Amino acid sequence: MDGSHRRAGTLLGTVGAALLVAGPVMLWRGRSGRKEIRTELAAQKIAFPDHGLPADLTSYAGHPVETGPEAHAYAEFIKANLAHATGGRTYAEISAELHAAGGDDDKLSQLRQTAFMGQSLRASLMSAYQAWHLTTLVTGLGAALTGLGAALVATADALTPRSSTPS
Q1: Residue 16: which domain range?
Q2: Domain count, the chain
Q3: Is-contact 76 137, C-beta < 8 A?
Q4: What pLDDT does 163 receive?
Q5: Which of 87, 96, 86, 93 is nearest to 118 (CA)?
Q6: pLDDT attached to residue 7
Q7: Does residue 164 lie within any of the structural domains?
Q8: What is the full per-residue pLDDT of the chain (167 aa) written as tens digits?
Q9: CA dihedral angle for residue 71, residue 77, residue 81, residue 86, rounded to 10 degrees
Q10: Pick from 126, 129, 130: which is nearest to 118 by CA?
Q11: How far apart are CA 121 and CA 82, in angstroms?
């Protein structure tokens, strides 16, 4: 076997070994991240109401929010309630109205506070949902890198000659 095959085998083996380390670390981080999201969501003690949900959310009735998809569903629930409460206006729009009214309108002040709290909670839940997807991506990449690392190490072993000793 010439030197270029030997170098290629060494390179493949080195890259494969690095991936065999990185892949399981990513798997571990993805799983621990998912667990952390569940723990943090459960600590908030958010639960869907038992009734009064829109038709597309009735399957969540009475369930606690503990996963990314549940956080997304609850964020959509907040969005609908907030649109109803504010007449579809955002915090920024209500703030502009309050400013235009001289900042001295109690009803607009309370509505602005409602919009702020609702939009803040919704944003937090959407962040949990996005983080949930990232843990899925990290876990999937970890599995792929582990498999690729194993394949590269096996290929490197096939390219590297075994020293033979006379019997």
Answers
A1: 3-159
A2: 1
A3: no
A4: 58
A5: 86
A6: 86
A7: no
A8: 577 878 888 899 999 999 999 999 999 999 999 999 999 999 999 999 999 899 999 999 999 999 999 999 999 999 999 999 999 999 999 999 999 989 888 999 999 999 999 999 999 999 999 999 999 999 999 999 999 999 999 998 888 766 555 55
A9: 60
A10: 126
A11: 11
- Among left, alpha and beta (phi > 0; psi -120 to 50; other), residue 162 is beta
Write phi, then psi, for 129 (nearest 5 degrees). -65, -45
Residue carrying structure tokens 């590269």: 152
DSSP secondary structure of 44-109: TT-B--SS---GGGGGGTT-B--SHHHHHHHHHHHHHHHHHHHTT--HHHHHHHHHHTTT--HHHH
Domain presence at residue 10: yes
- Is 167 inside any structural domain? no
9's CB contacts (< 8 A; 6+ apart) are 155, 156, 157, 159, 160
Rounded to an integer, what distance in angstroms lies between the CA atom of residue 155 and that of residue 65?
A: 46
